[in-house]
Automatic annotation (TrEMBL):
Protein name: Carbonic anhydrases/acetyltransferases, isoleucine patch superfamily protein
EC number in record: 4.2.1.11
Gene source species: Herbaspirillum seropedicae (strain SmR1)
A GO MF term: phosphopyruvate hydratase activity
Keywords attached to this entry: Lyase, Transferase
Entry-linked CDD domains: LbH_paaY_like
Source organism, top-level taxon: Bacteria
InterPro entries named among the record's database cross-references: Transf_Hexapept/Carb_Anhydrase (IPR050484), Trimer_LpxA-like_sf (IPR011004)
């Protein structure tokens, strides 16, 4: 992975974490145990510290940065969806930030809360635990159901499983020129989209 020190400060990646080779880590970045950092994610700790606690995942094309003297923290089992941007904020334990959402300076996403895809969480906003925030700017819409919180936890577990799968088997290869006979299926655990689960 592209990993850079600045002013002698070097990123730290726990051996049980997986950081994709195309992700970029700069400076004061701490990736804790069992974390997953996806392709082309950029964690830029050249101003403030960035911390991913145990079991957090930061998916492809996410950007994490912050102001000098301000940490940006994703707590244990935090789940940051594709393309999200975090800046000098805190995502509490078991919370989810949806795809392409933006969470701004000094905002706090409460424990087990969900920020909807494409939401804009303004600077300083405090999202209460176990609530859904959505919109531009984001507003707290309602409390989450037990089923929604369980769905989020199942999704996070699939990324923790992906960390193990990537460490064990992800390798750069050349593509095949045609589909082989008896093409193997992936061993990913089954999780369906929330909309499909609601239909069931």
């Amino acid at each position: 992975m592209p990993c850079y020190s600045i002013e002698g400060v070097i990123p730290v990646v726990d051996p049980s974490a997986y950081v994709h080779p195309t992700a970029v880590l700069i400076g004061d970045v701490i990736v804790g145990p069992d974390c997953y950092v996806g392709p082309t994610a950029c964690l830029r700790g050249d101003f403030g510290r960035i911390v991913l606690q145990r079991g957090a995942n930061v998916q492809d094309t996410c950007v994490i940065h912050g102001f000098p003297g301000h940490d940006t923290v994703v707590e244990e089992n935090g789940h940051i969806g594709h393309g999200a941007v975090l800046h000098s904020c805190t995502v509490r334990r078991d919370a989810l930030v949806g795809m392409n959402a933006v969470v701004m300076d000094e905002a706090v996403v409460g424990e087990q809360a969900i920020v909807a895809a494409c939401a804009f969480v303004r600077a300083g906003m405090q999202i209460p635990p176990r609530t859904l925030a959505a919109g531009l700017p984001a507003k707290v819409v309602r409390e989450l159901t037990a089923d929604e919180m369980a769905w989020k936890q199942a999704g996070t577990r699939t990324y923790q499983d992906l960390t193990v799968r990537c460490l064990a088997s992800l390798r750069e290869v050349s593509p095949l020129s045609q589909i082989e006979e008896n093409r193997p299926a992936l061993a990913a655990p089954f999780v369906e989209p929330l909309i499909a689960a609601r239909r069931a």
